[in-house]
Amino acid sequence: MGHSDTHRTLHDLFNARRYDEIEAYLAPGFLYEDLSRTLTVKTPGEFTDYLRGWVTALSDATVGSPQYAEGPDHSVCTFHGRGVNDGELGPFAPSGRPMDLVFCEVLHYAADGTVLSGELHYDQLTLLTQLGHAAPHATTYHGPTVEQTVRDLFASFDRVDGAAMKAAMTGDAQAVDEISRAWLRDPASLGGYFDGLAEVVSAVRTELHDLHVVEWGDSAVATMWLEQDYTMAGTPEHVSAPTTVVLRREPDRWRTALVHTVPLPDED
Hints:
This protein is an alpha+beta fold. It has two domains: 3-130, Nuclear Transport Factor 2, Chain: A (Roll), CATH 3.10.450; 146-261, Nuclear Transport Factor 2, Chain: A, CATH 3.10.450.50. It has helices at residues 3-15, 19-22, 44-57, 124-130, 146-159, 162-167, 187-200; strands spanning 26-34, 39-41, 62-70, 74-84, 98-109, 115-121, 169-177, 182-184, 201-216, 219-232, 235-249, 254-261. It is elongated and about 90 Å long. The relative contact order is 0.10.
């Protein structure tokens, strides 16, 4: 049996919860380090207790999608640790959230093929984030501001630039079509609306007044008053409307998830 075979057997035994059989593969003086937690396990019994600790926190914990490689006295495995946090994880109460995290484990072997030592590497912050026990990683965003994104969106309306309008929207965006007085709630309807605008309207000119932006992490809302002039079927039209734009920040830019603008009737 090669070292990779031993490594695979140990993972299979963990997945089957056959902890007592794992100890037979461990050499005298066995040592194991969870480097992400700066935790050192010093005996075979402590090691199986350590494994049981994972199962306490994630009762369906498994080693999945493993990839093994070996050398003369060691083996390396990268795998996906998966499970749902349905038990206590250290000081954290169960969150009910799933984990799917990449781990890297290195095992070192004695001359008789038993395991002398091991090290486990993984991103503990990502683990805690996935399970809802830590805030997501902060990211640095260098793209246009929310206000500039909103102004650019309406500038593309003024140009009747369907491609730019579609590129400015999220994949699940929604909008109100003031002409047909209907909601547009799927990419096909919204894309068709943008593509067909040039055949319906011309000479579009938009002014945004009292533009106010509030951000919450990767979400934002912009409220404003819209004054818009355009020509439809040769007839000049004017729209005056309170308008709301909801945006979601994506890696490269803010994109629009909702445009809600409903013209008010003229005052008597």
